[in-house]
From TrEMBL:
<feature type="domain" description="DUF1206">
    <location>
        <begin position="114"/>
        <end position="180"/>
    </location>
</feature>
<feature type="transmembrane region" description="Helical">
    <location>
        <begin position="26"/>
        <end position="51"/>
    </location>
</feature>
<feature type="transmembrane region" description="Helical">
    <location>
        <begin position="245"/>
        <end position="268"/>
    </location>
</feature>
<feature type="transmembrane region" description="Helical">
    <location>
        <begin position="208"/>
        <end position="225"/>
    </location>
</feature>
<keyword id="KW-0472">Membrane</keyword>
<feature type="domain" description="DUF1206">
    <location>
        <begin position="30"/>
        <end position="97"/>
    </location>
</feature>
<feature type="transmembrane region" description="Helical">
    <location>
        <begin position="153"/>
        <end position="176"/>
    </location>
</feature>
<feature type="domain" description="DUF1206">
    <location>
        <begin position="202"/>
        <end position="269"/>
    </location>
</feature>
<keyword id="KW-0812">Transmembrane</keyword>
<protein>
    <submittedName>
        <fullName>DUF1206 domain-containing protein</fullName>
    </submittedName>
</protein>
<feature type="transmembrane region" description="Helical">
    <location>
        <begin position="71"/>
        <end position="93"/>
    </location>
</feature>
<dbReference type="Pfam" id="PF06724">
    <property type="entry name" value="DUF1206"/>
</dbReference>
<dbReference type="InterPro" id="IPR009597">
    <property type="entry name" value="DUF1206"/>
</dbReference>
<feature type="transmembrane region" description="Helical">
    <location>
        <begin position="114"/>
        <end position="133"/>
    </location>
</feature>
<keyword id="KW-1133">Transmembrane helix</keyword>
Length: 274
């Protein structure tokens, strides 16, 4: 038992040393800048969907494909892959060693949130690396394919419905974070107000609305038992575009994505490490 405790303490000390190193913190800031670039490109692609001028899918994968098509895009994608990989490590360390000063309930909630963020950052990092290596085709249809696979499983319709509820909950959480500014104490060190915080309010709220829309598409697929009615970000934005005044609503969503991208630059200057 003593040996196990010694190994655990040594691992925790090693994790703490990594978290406190200046090189690691610099890489975290680089990762947040890269995350901001992805969202700025998402904003641009959303505008293209609104006004009908893009061949790229309006999704995070589409944003990475857009980078790949630019001069020196491959090099930039590798930088983004490294940056997002660092964000993955950051959130994994937070999930394992972080939030020790909080009570048990809050600690578990924040650890779960950090683990979920690590999965998102890891998926983006892998996608950026694959596209940089020339192995990242269009992601179109992947959401429908995944929904179809899930739908064909035992109780698949229920599973898709549960997934829809989970995505909607994520959306509502982001909306609440944006409206109440709860993200400030979680994301930022020593900052409580200002233009950067206002960008975060708009950005988180916008992302939340889009997540809710994606969840509703998934829910409709579950109710109708039709995977083709599901979809990801690109489908959600196109659904929004097809509504009355949808073009202008989608332009507002693009503005929200741009605000979140700029907020990420601000976040990169003041990241909070627990």
């Amino acid at each position: 038992m003593t040996n196990r405790n010694g190994v655990a303490d040594a691992a925790e000390n090693a994790g703490r040393n990594v978290q406190q190193s200046s090189a690691y913190r610099w890489l975290v800031s680089l990762g947040l800048v890269c995350y901001g670039i992805v969202h700025l490109l998402l904003a641009w692609l959303a505008l293209q969907v609104a006004f009908g001028g893009s061949s790229q899918e309006a999704s995070q994968s589409g944003a990475l494909q857009e980078i790949a098509s630019q001069p020196f895009g491959g090099i930039l994608l590798w930088v983004i892959a490294v940056g997002l990989g660092t964000l993955t490590i950051w959130q994994l360390l937070e999930a394992i060693f972080g939030f020790r000063s909080e009570d048990k309930g809050e600690r578990l909630r924040h650890k779960a949130a950090a683990a979920a963020k690590a999965v998102v950052y890891a998926a983006l990092a892998v996608s950026a690396g694959r596209i940089a290596a020339g192995d990242g085709g269009s992601s179109g249809g992947k959401e429908e394919s995944a929904t179809s696979t899930l739908m064909s499983a035992p109780a698949g319709q229920i599973l898709v419905g549960v997934a829809a509820v989970a995505v909607i909950v994520v959306g509502v959480v982001n909306i609440v974070k944006g409206v109440t500014s709860k993200f400030v104490e979680r994301d930022l060190e020593g900052v409580h107000s200002g233009a950067g915080v206002n960008l975060g309010r708009v950005g988180y709220s916008t992302k939340g609305v889009v997540f809710v829309l994606i969840g509703l598409l998934l829910g409709w697929a579950a109710i109708s038992h039709d995977p083709q009615k599901s979809g990801g970000l690109d489908d959600a934005l196109k659904t929004l575009r097809d509504q009355p005044f949808g073009m202008w609503l989608l332009a507002l969503v693009a503005l929200g994505f741009a605000c979140f991208g700029l907020y990420c630059f601000y976040w990169a200057r003041h990241p909070k490490h627990s």
